[in-house]
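Input chain follows. Return structure tokens only.
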Amino acid sequence: MSGTSKDRLAELESIVELTRTAREKALEADLTFEAYLLHTALVALLEQLELEADHR
């Protein structure tokens, strides 16, 4: 397996693990997977906007 193939495999394994964790957290929060991802994205966006506002 070439270095690039190993890197790609490691990247895919990371994505699988992140997805598994997100699905578990969605279940814990009694949300669908999609709702959990949307919530997470909105929280990240809000945090980014707050950081940008602090630097103005």
